[in-house]
TrEMBL record:
Protein name: L-threonine dehydratase
Catalytic activity: L-threonine = 2-oxobutanoate + NH4(+)
Pfam families: PALP, Thr_dehydrat_C
Family as reported in the entry's similarity comment: Belongs to the serine/threonine dehydratase family.
Amino acid sequence: MLEDTVKKILQARVYEAARETPISPASFLSRRLNNQILIKREDLQPVYSFKIRGAYNKMAQLSDEQKAKGVIAASAGNHAQGLALAARLMGVKAVIVMPRITPEIKVAAVRARGAKVVLKGDAFAAAAEHAQTLIEEYGYTYIPPFDDIDVVAGQGTIGMEILHQHSGPLDAIFVPVGGGGLIAGVAAYVKYLRPEIKIIGVESEDSACLKAALEAGERVVLDQVGVFAEGVAVAQIGEVPFSIVRDLVDEVITVNTDEMCAAVKDIFEDTRAVSETSGALSLAGLKKYIQQTGAEGETLLCINSGANTNFDRLQHIAERTELGEQREAILAVTIPEKPGSFKKFCKTIGKRMVTEFNYRYADPEQAHIFVGVQVKPGGEDRQAVIDKLREAGYPVEDLTDNELAKLHIRHLGGGRPKEHFEEEVYRFEFPERPGALVNFLTHLPHDWNISLFHYRNHGAAYGRVLVGMQVPNGDRTHVEEYFDAIGYRYWKESENPAYRLFMA
C-alpha cells in the first residue's frame, strides 16, 4: 500500500493550480532554541493553504461526465477555497455548502473564486447532510477534504518537495493534523525514501482524533471538538489517512490555545507571515518537542499549513501569546485595602514588569487584585514569583492556566454585587450567528434571572460567553438538562477560584 501511495504522489496533478512553496529558515527561533528550525511555507499558495493540492488532484481524476455535472463539498474552511479555485481553473461548476456561522471573510473568498455558496445549518453536520441532498438531486460529485487517496496523494507532494528542496540532514518533520490527509501524504512519501526522518503529528489538545485513534488501535469519534483551531477541528481521523499513518507516524504531540498563539507570533517574527492558528500548530508542536526532549543541534521542519485568519482574531491571539511563551504569570493576589499597598506589592515583585493590573474596591479590609507578572521564557521561575509573594504574606492563586480567568475575568469590571445571592455560573461557546442568544434565552425557564453576562467576539465561528443565572431551588438539579437541549458546549464555573475571588 505504501508503494502504491508513493506512485500516486509522483503522478499527482497539482502544479496546474498549486505552486512549489519555499522552505524558510527561522533564524531568530533557531538561535533561541539551539536547533535549526525550518518552515515549509504553504501559506504562500494561491488560496493561502495547502488544500489546493488535494482538491485539484482529486478533480483531475474525474471523468468528463462527472465534470459536466459539477462538484460539491461541505466545508467552512480552506478546503472550500481550494476546491473553488480548482473548479474555476478546470471550468467546472462548484457548489460549496457552508454552515451559517461561517465567517463572512471565508464566504466572500469562496464566492470570489467562482463557486456557488449555499449556507445551511448551524454546524458542519447540517451542511454535510444538505450537500448529500444536493448530490441526490443534481448528480454532483463530492470532493472530500481529506478521506480520499487522491486527496492524500495531492497533499503528499509537500513531502516530495521537502526532500527535493532539503537534501541535507533532517531529523523530524512536524505536521498539523485535522482529518489526516496531509500527514498521510507526507508520511508515505518521506518514510518510503528517508525512513530515518521522524514524522511527528501535532494536534490541538481539544481535537486530538489521531492520538485517540492510535491509543485505541482504531478510529474513534471524539465526544467534543474545540473550535479555536478550526482548520483542524475534526472529530474522527479519516479512514484512508489512518490506514496509512498508523504504522508510519513516530509520535503525536498535542498543544493548547496559548501555545498555538505563541507559534503564530514566532512565524510572524521570522517570516512576516500571519499564520492561522491551525497553520502554526506544527511549530507549536515542534517547540514542545524541544522542551520535552531537550533536543539541541537538530534540524527540525514544520509545515505552516495556512494563513486564512480573520483580522479581528489577531487581538485575541496577541493576548494569549505571552502566556503561550510562558513569559507571563496570571495571579490573583490578596493585598491589604489601604494606601501604599500596591507600591509595597510592586517592591516585593522587584524588577519584574507588571504586565496587567485589574482591581475594583469590594471590601474595606482586603483587596483582590488580578495581576500579570513577567517571568522568564518557559515559565521556569513562575513558582519562584509565587513563593516570594507568599513568603511576604500575600495569599496567591495561580490563574495562568485558568480559561475562565484568561477569557473573561481579565476583561470584566464593575466589582461584586452589593448583596449576597446564589447564582450558577457557566461558560459557553455560542455559534456566531444572528439569533444565537435569543435561542439560548428561549430555552431557559421564564423565572430564571440572568445575573452576569460577558461576551467577546474573537473573529471565530464560535463566541465565548460567560453567564451567571439565579436559578430557583427546584431547578438546581436540572440546570444542565436545559443546556443539553440547547446544544451549545458549556462548562460549569461556579466553583472556579477566579470567579470566587473577583465576581462572587
